[in-house]
Amino acid sequence: MLNKRLFLPAFIVMLLVYSFTREATIAVLSDAYFQVAAFVYASLSVYYLATLKVSAEAIGDFMRKHPLYEVGLASFLGALPGCGGAIIVVTQYTRGVTSFGAVVAVLTSTMGDAAFLLLAQAPFDGLTVMGVGMVVGTLTGVIVNRFHNYQPPSSTTALGSADDNTDDSVDDSEPSATTASSSIDKLSTYFWLVVALPSLAIALGLSFQSPVHEYLGVTEPTLQLIGAVLCLSAITLWSLNGGSAGYASLTLKKMLLRLRHAGRVKQR
């Protein structure tokens, strides 16, 4: 069957070929990578690393038993600069882990990438706005849960299937995967392991309006081109990795699970 995901990188390459769309395409790809992808990957990696010690099911049970903590944590994640916290909460809501009030709380308290600029220009005002957003988000989430705590259909069974199957895929299903898909999966993991920290450092510098290209000894267009190449590489790997089980398959958690599985194989 044709992998329809490949149409996206093919379309981007077509935009890069024509001179009248090349400059704008490079700028958009670079901004998408350094202003969004780097922060989202960092946030998701922290979450999935945390689930190595505490299972997602245990986290979900705790959230259901302590709704105020759940909404407060969601507001805190939303207040953090970037959109990674909002993506984590919304993703877990679709899996039945968090409540609808948590989604409202995280979206109410978030400022996205604008928080970086505010913190750089006026740190005290930025922290004040973040604190107010957390309080308003928490109160709003509690009220929403009190009167309208909507849950997605079949959410009670969605939790264990997403994160738990990630562990199982390393032990059971991976030997039966095709060589090509397994190679792309590994390449995606190694790609993010190599570029994640440098990309995050560059993204933080750009968010705080620092002349990152001067620190790296390159011109600003060159740094923009690097971001565009990394973004296109990530999109291409995503399009080829059509069998991925979710975000966890590309994060540090998957890499650690691979190393753990390899150690068990050697012991046998």
Automatic annotation (TrEMBL):
The chain crosses the membrane at residues 32-50, 71-93, 190-210, 222-250. It comes from Alteromonas naphthalenivorans. InterPro entries: ArsP_2. It holds the Pfam family ArsP_2. This is Uncharacterized protein. Keywords: Membrane, Transmembrane, Transmembrane helix. Residues 164-174 have a biased composition (Acidic residues). Residues 154-180 are annotated as: Disordered.
